[in-house]
Structures are given as structure tokens and as C-alpha cells.
Amino acid sequence: MMPNTQACPNPAASDEDIAAMVMGKDGLRVLFQPQVDLLTGRIVSAEALARWQHPRLGLVMPAEFIPAVNRLGLDRAFFERVCVRVIDALLTLRRAGIAVPVAINAPATTLSDQRSVEFLLDRIYAAELPASLVRVELTEDQPIRELEVLRASLLRLEEAGCEVSLDDFGTGYASLKLLSAIPLSEVKIDQYFVTRMRRSAVAFEVLRTAAELATRLGWRVVAEGVENVADIPALRAAGCRYGQGFALGRPMPLDALMVRLRTQRDGGEPLAAPASYASSWLEAFGSGAKDAESAYPARHGAIL
Ligand code: C2E
Ligand code: MG
Ligand code: MG
Asked: What domains lie within the chain, and their CATH numbers?
């Protein structure tokens, strides 16, 4: 979660630097983090995550510059730049014979702007890509001021074939009203709960109940911030069919993602596990959900 009103906390990055980056002069990089089916271990999609390679400061993370991008009113221009990168990535994947949806993050203000939506759809049509390969993730770092406007934009995307995902569910501004008003295909349960479920019965129950609600509404459920493969059985038991996290794949350049996807396509291992996790990896995918139920959580008064 990122507040959108604060100044860029990196004092060395000026507003001019940020504007230059957004307007295309310098340093925007986009990495891709795989999303994995926790039943099969297969990569099912990827999320585009922005980085800023600053000429003096080195790599600047989005939490450090996205709030300033929003504050400067450059969010739509930034969104458009990321869209272009994602469409390019999808075209590269298509040339390799791979079709995997890629998600683009955007706050409500950006997605409420019809021009953002039309820009994205124009790019998709121009590239002759199926709209189903592009997802938008509504980041929850801003309160929703005009729900009807946001709803109309998201409906336009949905009608065109793009899926909408709700990011950081459980720690952001999403209300039950929002959930029932906007068209969604997916919710991503914030890593706050995933990280805490091992030691907190309350966190586990909140996660499970959120997953159940989403499943009842027909949405895919994704656990964010999966840092330990040993948690996978419990996540499955809690109703999270999909996961994203360092244990499943860090944000990586497109080339690296393609290596993983090619291996998968050619019938290799479902996923090349990071070496440190290799031994527990297959067990985590192989073990039954029942085991997980007994393993998690300690059912006594742990607090979040
Ligand atoms: P997000 O969309 O919730 O993305 C997930 C964040 O969690 C990413 O941080 C990712 O690197 C990190 N992450 C993934 N797995 C793990 C894990 O196992 N453990 C931990 N501790 N972290 C994990 P990142 O890339 O720094 O992005 C932070 C946030 O910045 C994103 O959160 C998203 O809200 C925003 N963001 C990133 N790229 C963009 C963009 O292109 N546009 C906009 N508007 N926001 C973006
Ligand atoms: Mg996201
Ligand atoms: Mg998130």
C-alpha cells in the first residue's frame, strides 16, 4: 500500500527527474513476476512491476516514486508508458509461441479516466492481441471518490475482454460496496495476511474467509507475498488457488520469465524452484490440503 499524497521520500530524486522519467527520457524498466497455480506449480500469468533506473541514484523502487508520480498528476502518462511496455512484452511472448496474461497496476484515479482505458484498448487492438491477455490490477492506495465513474471504466475494460483484479485486498480502501459494484475476475489477498497466517489463527481465518467470499463470487483468489513454499499447502487449504511471491519467482526481466515459460511449455518441470527451496518444493505441491489443515494454524488466541 502506498499513500499517494506524500512527496517522493528519496530527496535526491527531484520532481524534474520524475517527470523526465515518466515522459520517456530516462530509466523506466518493467520487471515481470510470475503468478503460479498452487495446485500444479505452473505459471499462469505475470504482473508487470515498474522500476526506475536512475542515472545517479541507481535502482529506485516504485514505493519511492509512484506516490510522486501521482502527486505530480503524471499517473496517466506513466500508465500509458507501462502499457506500451506490456504490449511489447506480449508481442515478444507471442513470437515465442507463448500466450500468458500480463497484469498492469494502476490506481483508481488512472483507471477512472476514460482516456487511460481507451489508450490501453487502442494499443491492444493495434497489436492485434486478444484483450484477455491484458489485466489491470486496481491498486488500493487511494480512496475511491467517484465509484460510478470507476465502475463505468472497468465495465468498458471488461466488455472489451480485459480482466480486472483487486490488489492488496484486506489492507487497502476496498469496501464491500466496492466489491459488489465493480466487475472483478480476481482478488489478490495482501501479503500482510499471508505472512502472519503461520503464527496467527486470526490472520489465517481472515485469509480463509476472504478467499471464501471471493470464491463464492466467482473470482480467482491469489495469495500475495508467498515467501515460503512450506506455506503452500495451508494457502491451498485456505482457498487460495494461486500465489505470487519470492518463493515462486521474484520479479524478473522478460528474458528470464521466457526461459521459465519455455521450459513449462516444452513439458519440463512445472517450475524451476529456487535452489534453496528445491527439496521442499515438490512436497509442497504434492502434499494434500488435509495435512495443511492440521498444520495451520495454532487455534488459540494469537493476535495479528
Ligand atoms: P503490488 O502490485 O502489490 O506488487 C507486489 C509487490 O510485492 C511488488 O513490490 C513485489 O516485488 C513485492 N513482492 C512480490 N513477492 C513478494 C514476496 O514474496 N515478499 C515480499 N516481501 N514482497 C514481494 P514492488 O515491485 O516494489 O511494487 C510495490 C508496489 O508498487 C506494487 O504493489 C504496486 O502497488 C506499485 N507498482 C509497481 N509497479 C507499478 C506500476 O507500473 N504502476 C503503478 N501505478 N503502481 C505500481
Ligand atoms: Mg499489483
Ligand atoms: Mg499487491
From this structure: 26-287 (3.20.20.450)
